[in-house]
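Sequence in, structure out. Go.
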Amino acid sequence: MAITFQYNKTSLQGLEKQLKIRERALPTIKSKENALRLEVKRTRDEMIALEEKLENDIRSYESMAALWSEFDPDLIAVKNVALSSGKIAGVVVPVLDDIAFDVKSFSLFNKPSWFFDGINVLKTLVSTGIEAEFTGLKLGMLEHARRKTTQKLNLFEKVQIPGYKDAILKIKRFMEDEESLSKSSQKIMRANQEKRKKKEEES
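Output:
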């Protein structure tokens, strides 16, 4: 990013102001980026754990496959998924509050007694699956925010702050050179005036 500036005091003051803003914001951006990095890792671990739990639970019920063929899947359905929103390192993320199920009544005379357990097993599997989905959604949002924060941090740290410092230095050097030239010109002018005065006095 090229920083546009002019070789004058107004431009110098403007650049110094911009530099101060960025230097002041840098520690906050760094701590946000660090917090998001840690949160991304924690959420990814949580999602992997939920996915593994779901796989293990499904595998543990595979031995009951013959029984499951008797089960009526219409007995249970997800009625509602209650959501709210929370903030993690300044990023708004969805929070899974509750999963409500709709369980139809059935006759114990016509259905096997293990159907109650079957309903609870399905509730657990579905809850874990939904939780894993939402954790994945949260992870995506946190990763996006972390990438944007890292980009901003790199822009400030590696491009803008060094760019402003370099521009400020160039203006200061130019102004110093200009001042030296001005002083030298004044000395030469004074010396010439004194010479002229001397000549006039001598004549």
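Check: The chain has three helices and two strands. The longest helix spans residues 115-202.
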